Amino acid sequence: MMAVGNTFGAKEKVEEDRYIRAREQELARARAQATAAEMKQRELEQKSAELVAQKGAFMKEAADLLATTGDVVSEAGLANLADWKVGK
User: From which residue to which does any coiled coil extend (predicted)?
Assistant: First the structure.
């Protein structure tokens, strides 16, 4: 009778271990996905900041160039030119 109890106990332990390993793998995958998503978000934010800086620099350069000849372009016009130049 003890052999049957030991067999069930061993099977139960194997099932618990299998469940724990599977759960740990799930959690590791979830952490890896979260880390990858966070890195992608940082890259997008950095690229966005770079594009905004480039656009601002171009708008200032274009406004200064136009000012030397006395020409004026609206902010919206400068923004459109910057989008075209920088590539939206």
Answer: 20-54
Closest CA to 73 of 60, 86, 83, 88: 60
Average pLDDT over the chain reads: 89
Give the domain ranges of the chain: 2-86
44 against 83, higher pLDDT:
44
Reported pTM: 0.59
CB-CB contact of 69 with 50 (8 Å): no
Distance, CA of 39 to CA of 61 (rounded, Å): 33
With a CB cutoff of 8 Å and minimum separation 6, the contacts of 80 are none
CA-CA distances (angstroms) from residue 43 to 9, 34, 38? 51, 14, 9
